[in-house]
Amino acid sequence: MEALAEFVNLYFLPGVAVGCIYALGAVGISLIFAILRFAHFAHGDVMTLGAYLAYSLVASLGWSVYLALPVAVLGGALASVAIDRVVYQPFRRSPGIIVVIASFGVMLVLRSLIQLFWGVDVLNYETGIRKPIPLIGDFRLAQKHIIIILVSLAIAAALHWFLSRSRMGKAMRAMSDDADLARISGIDTEKVVRWTWLIGGGLAAAAGVFAGINSKLHPSVGWDLLLPLFAAAILGGIGKPYGAIVGGLAIGIAQEVATYPWISDLPLVPPAYKNAVAFFVMVCMLIWRPTGIFKGRVL
Amino acid sequence: MDMQFFGLLMYAISLATMFGIYGVLCLGLNLQWGFAGLFNAGIAGFFAVGAYTTAILTSPESPNYLGGFGWPPLLALPIAMLLSGLIAWPVGRICLGLKGDYLAMATIGISEIIRLILKNEDWLANGTMGISTVPRPFESLGQPRGNIAFLAFVLLVMIILYVAAERAWMSPWGRAMRAIRDNELAAAAIGKDVVRFRLEAFVIGSMVMGLGGALSAMYFKFIGSSATEPLLTTFLVWVMLIIGGSGNNRGAMLGAGLVWLIWSGTELLTNRLPAEWITRSSYLRALLIGVLLIIVLQRFANGVLPEKPPRRIDS
Question: A125-139, B106-120, B260-274 — which one is most confidently predicted on average?
Fold first, then answer.
């Protein structure tokens, strides 16, 4: 029992929390990939931007980071729409690879702006250590993990409502399934594109704030998560927002659980190689099953 | 010698040497992207293989990492290339079936795994501390003669690569490569072995990237995980090739020169900024490069020197 509790407390639940962060980021990557047909390499830096926007509110106004979260989400969403207007819109008819390289440029711009405004020091939303909250018996849950998991669930529920009930959500799913068919059936594709950035950017900002809460805040916090996000989006199937959520959770849990001492007393995968688990899953999926577990598209 | 003149001379030499090293990397990427249309976003990985190989082979013996075997530097270059090629071969075999963005994601994933291994396996390359005793060829000639000799060597390597790449561009091999890049089905239909040609471009290009890494390790006399950051390797090289003009070997070198001139030339300007901004000047430069890349892509998607089809033989 004690061993199980240790496994759940130290490996599984942190994995779920990391998985929630991945899921939030991967939904945007998956939707943008399906609707705009390119891998958005600047997504990690949109996450970083959201995290630092929240930090500014925490540091200057003394807000709680959870109060700052909605503002950061709004900031990330609006910034993404603005970036699309200025940078990506002229490339709508260009080959996808040109846009990917443009997103390298956006990545450089966003990261250097963040470094210029907020510096490169490692920051924290709050100082001090909080005691984990006991659940049943030996099972404990860190407060930050509870909040990350609950808020992510709420966001996922809202996303589900939006995608399945609202007209725009349906149009978005239609366009991510088949953009040409969506266009000839009279869907305003530019409007769908705007909403895609709003949702993708907002979720990315939330993921960035959570990443900052979960560990620390530094200018490459988002970049470090970018490849796991791609891994999650591909695992779930490109263009499948629900797939991206499952993929994010799977990768997050796999990364943490892989460091458990399964065979000997030593971690199965050394903690320094946690990220390699995500890269490995991504490369394997790309090679053997690029459609992902939910039969997404291959563009 | 006048101190100020000496300083300027050393600055010019370092500028030109870095131009040569990035020129080599750009020519390597052009072999993959310009010739064969392979979206390799894992330059950092092959760069690292070449750089670390050189460092381990040439540095003096140390208990902190594998080797140092104390080889003469120039002997290490072919081994660095060979090892990069040996790693690129299976990577290419597995990944080259992927198109466009998917290949980019797979190669960046593999390159990050390579970098993670080099960073974390302390016995191999001293972990995050890196190896800081890499000898530079011609060092014994002293300053500035040794630096000039090394610069000449780097430029010679770049020019040899350029001539070889130009020959390859005109050759049947280069034509087949472009045919595959532009229309894979048509090229396959006239009997070109698409898989083999792609693999050749990928392996040769990666070997050239390994060579670039090796030259860089020699020049800085240091290799560590900070020196293989994707920003300074993968992304900067992509920016250079796209701005210079992919599919044009001269464009590749021009891009390397232009972007490096902007990258380090702005250093002169940012040094005049107030003290608190100087520490942040490198971010200002990254910002400038990012903006420049976006503008070039929007206005001149083909770069400064766009690709030109080779002369027709019959006219």
Answer: B106-120
Q: Where are the alpha helices (DSSP H) in chain B?
A: 3-29, 43-58, 73-95, 100-120, 122-125, 145-170, 172-182, 184-189, 194-220, 236-244, 249-270, 275-278, 281-299
This prediction's pTM: 0.90
The full DSSP string for B191-260 is T--HHHHHHHHHHHHHHHHHHHHHHHHHHHT-B-GGGG-TIIIIIHHHHHHHHH-TT-HHHHHHHHHHHH
Backbone angles phi, psi at A140, to 5 degrees: -130, 160
Q: How confident is the model at residue A278 (pLDDT cuts 50, 70, 90)?
A: confident
**Number of other residues whose CB lies within 10 A of the CB of residue B266:** 17
- For the four alpha carbons of B245, B29, B202 and A228, in that order, the dihedral sign comes to negative
Cβ distance B294 to A102 less than 8 Å, yes or no, reads yes
Tell me, what's the pLDDT at B22?
97
Domain boundaries, chain B: 17-224
Chosen for mutation from B38, B99, B101 (greatest number of chain A CBs closer than 10 Å) is B101
Q: Could you tell me which residues of chain A have a Cβ less than 8 Å from any Cβ in chain B?
A: 33, 38-39, 87, 90-91, 94, 96-98, 100-102, 104-109, 111-113, 115-116, 119, 227, 230-231, 234, 270, 272-273, 275-276, 279-280, 282-283, 286-287, 290, 298-299
Contact A39 B104 (CB under 8 A): yes
Domains identified in chain A and CATH numbers:
2-121+137-288 (1.10.3470.10)
Share of chain B above pLDDT 90, in %: 57
Partner-chain contact A290 B98, CB within 8 Å = yes
Could you tell me the pLDDT band of residue B220, with boundaries at 50, 70 and 90?
A: very high
pLDDT, one tens digit per residue, over B62-107 is 888 887 788 898 899 999 999 999 999 999 998 998 888 889 989 9
